[in-house]
Structure formats: C-alpha cells, structure tokens
Specification:
- It is globular and about 65 Å long.
- The strands form two sheets. Strands 1, 2, 3, 4, 5 and 6 form a six-stranded parallel sheet that branches.
- The two termini are 45 Å apart.
- Strand 7, helix 12 and strand 8 form a beta-alpha-beta unit.
- The protein is 47% helix and 9% strand.
- It has two domains: 75 residues; 358 residues, TIM Barrel.
- Helix 11 packs parallel to helix 12 and helix 14 packs across helix 15.
- By secondary structure, it is of the alpha/beta class.
- The structure holds zinc ion (ZN).
- The site of zinc ion has 4 residues, from loops.
Length: 484
Amino acid sequence: MDDPAVYYSNTGGEKQDATAVSVRSTTELFASDSQKKMNTRVVYGSLAALVIALIAVLIALIVVATSKNSNETSSSGSSAQGSCEDSNSYPWVVPDCSYAKTNLEKAHCVLDSYPLVDGHNDLPYRYRMFANNSVYNVDLTSDLRLTWDPNVSHTDIPKMRKGKLGAQFWADYVPCASNYKDAVRLSLEQLDVIKKYVARYPETFEFVTTAQGILDAFKDGKIGSLIGLEGGHSIDSSLGTLRMFYTLGVRYMTVTHSCNVPWADNWLADTPDYNETLEGPKHDGLTAFGEKVILEMNRLGMLVDLSHVAKATMEDALRISKAPVIYSHSSAFEYCNHYRNVQDSVLRLTKENGGVVMVNFYDKYINCEPNLKDTPTLSQVADHIEYIKNLIGVDYVGIGADYDGVPSVPVGLEDTSTYPALFAELIKRGWNEENLQKLAGRNLIRVFKQAEKVSDEMGHLPPYEDIQPQKVSNPDDLPCRTDF
Ligand SMILES: [Zn+2]
C-alpha cells in the first residue's frame, strides 16, 4: 500500500506547480501586444499543463483503486499466493559462504541470509513468574540470569542477537490448573505481556502475523515476533474464543498442553501408567467437536500445533487438517523414547501432510533411552534433526528450542545465543547452505504460506457455530460454569 500512496502524493505536487504557473501568468496578461501573444501562449500552455496534471491525477487515482482492489482479492483469493511467492524468491538466494574459514563463520553466513524461526519460547511466562507480568520493571537488554532463576532464564536481547534469531513464536501459555477455570483471562494477560515487550523494544522486535511479515521484519533487521497459544484449554471449548484469539494475533494453537480438554487427548494418554490416573485417555484422539476446532483453525489460517498431544490426536488432526501442521517444540521418539516426541509412523504422515517438526532442546526429550548419555549435549540435538531428515527428508524439520520453558538444556545449547553452534555442528556433518536455510526457517515459512493459502480458499465459508456440548465437560467443574 505504500507505493501507490507515494505515487499519488508526487502527482499532487506536480499539479500544484502547474496551478502556480497559471496564476502568475494571468496577472501579466495586458502588458503589451507581443507580450499579450506571449501571455496567451503562456495561458494556453498553463491550461495544457493543468489538463495534463488533471489526467495524471486521474491515472494515479485509477492506480490506487486498482492496487486496493488487487489487495482485497489477495486476502480472499489464491492469486495472492503466487505474488507472495514471487516477492519471496528474491533476495532469498542460497548464500555463497565459501569465504568462511570456520564452521561457526559459515553458520553465521547462513543465518545472515535467511531468518532462523524458533517455534517456541516461554519468556512470557517468566514475566508472570518473576515480574508479575510487569514489562517496564524488567530490562530485557540485561542478563536476566542475574535477576531471575538462572536455570530457566535463557532469553534476553543481547543473547538473541548473538544467536542470530530471526523470528520467534512466543508462547502464550498458562498452566493446566486453569483448565475449566480462568484459562481465557490468564491467556489474554499473557498475550498482553507479549504485546507489551514487543512494543517496548521497537528497535529489536516487530509484531508480525504473516509468513511474509517474518521475511519483511528480517529484512529490516528486526526479530519477527509471533504468538502461539499453548494448549486448547485456553479457548475453553469455545470457537468464538478461538476466533478472537486469532483476531488478536495468535497464529498457532497447540491442540492440548499436558492435560486433556473436553475434545482432545494429550500425550500423557500414551504413557504406560496413564490409564491408572484419574482422567485417563478419554477420546481416543479428537472428538467430533475437536475435528471442528481443527477445521476452524484451517479456515482462519491458524497453524495446528501437535506438540503435547496424544498420538491418536496427532493422527486424527493429520487426517482432518486441510493445511500442513507444525510441532512447535517436539523431537524424535525413536531416538529418545519420550511420549512428548513424535513417533515414526506419525513422522511419515507428517511428510504426506507437508508439515514441519521443530526440534525441542529440552534434555529430557533429547537424551533418553535408547540413546541415554551421562551428559546431554548439542550433538544429540543434531542427532534428532538428522534422524528426522533421514527418515522423511530435510523439508520437514525445524527448530523449536523451548527456551525459558524448561529447567535444563544440553551442554553447548545453554541459551538463545547458541543457535549458531548447532548449525556449525551440522556443517561439520556435511549439511549444505540450502538445507541449513530449510532447517532455519524455509520449511516453517513454506508451511505458514500454505496455511494462509488454505485459509484464502476457505474464505467463502461462514464461521463454524457449533457449541461444545456442556455434558462433555468435566462434570466436577460444572458448578463453576454459567448455565446458559
Ligand atoms: Zn510445551
């Protein structure tokens, strides 16, 4: 929209000059005959200039109207996707990093060429824990390990810059204890915290809600800041609430956190002893209403995040979703048998779906049987990435470190300054620049653009208006609900 506006104001400037010439000329009309002729010529000339200027203004108005029209078409029609991809093709070329003397220099070269998009960071929840959600009493340019708990504080601006972070999905997370209670209010407060700190540091962050927005922010030297809602409990089984979170800028929702919701099972349902616990696996994946939630997310253009959910929920969502899915912070189950990770059969389905698994750095998810080591290391995270690459291909893997959300991380990946070290490790293992760009952000951007395209194609559909049947909610909590 900027370009047509500039064009219009330039044309306006020309028009003003022509009018000024015309006014000056008419004041000298009757001086002498020769002067008269000259003045007549000047008058005609001025009139001609005026006509030309008017035509120019008319053309400018047509250009503005046409461009507005095409923008409107682009938000509801698939033609926009083509133009988006065109503008994405340049200058996003694979860089020539042959000048780099070390693997770390080469890693820097790659991460300067394309944004590293991390799928999950829990800094917003640290604001709640350590600062009562106050943003203006916290200096994000300082080392927060000195004021917050050093074990769970991995993020500040100098570290993110050193780590070449290009864009971040900030987690709008509130604990499962709020399920059936005040999860919506608490989640809105976390969303507010994200918007507050993004606004407080405009030279560092730029709030974005589109795939192209990530690339534009990166071009401007900013860390594109997006919001992911971590857990279906945050919408309280309400599609209206889901839609309002989208309106406020949320661009993915994790279908569950580590608790069931009335329409989907979480990953604990897969653990061997879970049947003995109070809740147990309830829905064998998604309920009919859960399927509606997935379709409504597709219609909105909100990414479906399958980290934290049960295997059956993953399979149901992959069957239902019309858009590629993400796993914002999960690793490979076969390499480390933790049920928060993604099993091989699901990885294969994810390839068919075109989604992306963004590998988590939490040492409990990357260092366990059958590859348990005494000390969890960066090398194991590289193993997870290579495991997924070797099983389903380099197009389906990304980074979702889970910084500030976990109490321990591997040696070598201590905080948000260490991403280049991981890329240097992969370079050592023979990864080329193009594949490193895919891991960094190309895969996620591809998925995001495709989800936007699906949303455009579903744009003609009205919002789903189903209401979650009350009887499916947790009966113990029904006294807390308003009865209408
Ligand atoms: Zn999580």
